[in-house]
Design goal:
It is a single chain. With 414 residues, this protein is an alpha+beta fold. The protein folds into 3 domains: 109 residues, Butyryl-Coa Dehydrogenase, subunit A, domain 1 (Orthogonal Bundle); 87 residues, Beta Barrel (Butyryl-CoA Dehydrogenase, subunit A, domain 2); 162 residues, Butyryl-CoA Dehydrogenase, subunit A, domain 3, CATH 1.20.140.10. 47% of the residues lie in helices and 11% in strands. It has 11 helices and 8 strands. A hairpin with a 2-residue loop joins strand 2 and strand 3.
């Protein structure tokens, strides 16, 4: 990759200790109210405001433009810590960081600089890609069209993660005039954008993943971009957010299990020690939880290195090397998702084996770890991730870089 630019216009890494000193105290403040937010389903507007004020949304923006210039691995080290504090927040920011990543890969022009300035200024971007209801596989009902010399957007999106906290929404749509797929950046501060808090999942309840309606929402022409320009490792990047969130949940399960065992006074007559913390079987349980958390973190950061290589390959001037790096990133992301999902769910269940019946009290909210891990790991079917990896390992079949969800053909129609 000899042609890779060596100046500070790329985000190839920062001083992680400085990043940690800057953001970990913010995450700790966010963690203080995480249990209560989960119990009351209270949307984390204050937590989002803290992250915006700290400049977290610009951590990947190159240093030359006012960001931190963090690498993808450094970003996900921070995301794991944030997920450990409150696993809803990384998912709420997932669309934002993908949109940032797209502009990191875009041509260095006035539009890129304008978006960098917005990110550095604290503006956040939500996500609105999925359509539900009677929508055929691959069909896009959300349309952008010209009206009176301007662009307007009409349609409905579901699972609009993070959009309740955003200044802009990244929308997957279709041009009405030529049928081409486009990405549309819509400013939420207008009557034509209606955001609803109607997400009803049993986990990840405060991610801001509700319905978004667009009714003649105005869009600037420069914010309608052909989908083909989208950064090539986007699926790997999106899925790695889930992996890092799972790693953070596993870490939180380890933290809570250790803290509750350490402070536990009640023991069983048929146990192994006068204190739960000295009971060798309980120590084994916590050791297993900690090891699974370690494994989830390790595969996350290993995959993040592959995604960083895909980012850098984009600027290397070698199409084949870039394609190979994108394949590596996709496979690494899929493998890490399989491992982290299993480890996080194991840890979130096993922690109850280290405690007594008091562990199920609502004020501990320990069930949130399993509920949240189950919600995150259900987003993209693990069986298909395993199939993609197996097909690559056996047959060398290139993984899909973009995929859709929708209704299949009716039974008997083929």
């Amino acid at each position: 990759m000899s042609s890779l630019r060596s100046d500070d216009t790329l985000s190839t890494g920062a001083d992680y200790e400085a990043l940690a000193a800057r953001f970990l105290p913010v995450f700790a403040e966010i963690a203080r109210d995480a249990v209560e937010r989960d119990r009351a389903r209270s949307l984390p507007h204050e937590a989002i405001a803290l992250l915006k004020k700290a400049g977290f949304g610009a951590v990947r923006v190159p240093a030359r433009y006012g960001g931190a210039g963090a690498s993808i691995e450094q970003l996900f080290r921070l995301i794991i810590e944030l997920a450990s504090a409150d696993s809803n927040l990384p998912q709420a920011l997932r669309g934002h960081f993908a949109f940032v990543e797209d502009w990191l890969n875009a041509p260095a022009d006035e539009d890129q600089r304008a978006w960098f300035d917005r990110f550095v200024g604290g503006q956040l971007v939500g996500n609105a890609w999925t359509e539900a209801g009677d929508v055929a596989l691959g069909q896009i009902n959300t349309k952008v069209s010209r009206r009176d010399g301007a662009f307007v957007l009409n349609g409905a999106k579901y699972y609009s993660t993070g959009s309740l906290y955003a200044d802009w929404i990244d929308v997957f749509a279709q041009r009405e005039d030529d049928g081409s797929d486009v990405i549309v950046a819509v400013n939420v501060h207008q009557p034509g954008v209606i955001r609803e808090d109607d997400w009803d999942g049993f986990g990840q309840t405060t991610t801001g993943s509700g319905t978004t309606l667009f009714r003649d929402a105005e869009v600037q022409a420069r914010n309608v971009v052909d989908f083909s320009r989208r950064f090539k490792y986007q699926t790997a990047f999106y899925q790695l957010f889930h992996v890092a969130t799972l790693a953070g949940i596993a870490q939180a399960a380890q933290r809570d299990a250790a803290a509750l065992v350490r402070s536990r006074k009640r023991v069983y007559s048929h146990g192994n020690a006068g204190l739960a913390s000295d009971d060798v079987q309980i120590q084994q349980v916590v050791g297993e939880i900690a090891s699974w958390a370690y494994g989830a973190r390790a595969v996350t950061l290993q995959a993040a290195q592959a995604v960083q290589r895909a980012y850098e390959a984009h600027f290397g001037g070698n199409d084949e090397a870039e394609r190979a790096a994108n394949v590596e990133a996709e496979i690494a992301s899929a493998q890490s998702q399989l491992v982290a999902s299993e480890f996080a769910l194991r840890g979130a269940t096993h922690l109850f084996d280290a405690l007594g019946a008091s562990a199920i009290r609502a004020d501990h909210a320990l069930d949130r770890h399993w509920r949240n891990a189950r919600a995150v790991s259900s987003h993209n079917p693990l069986v298909y991730k395993a199939k993609i990896v197996g097909d690559w390992i056996i047959n060398g079949t290139q993984p899909p870089f973009v995929w859709h969800i929708g209704n299949g053909p009716k039974r008997g129609s083929q």
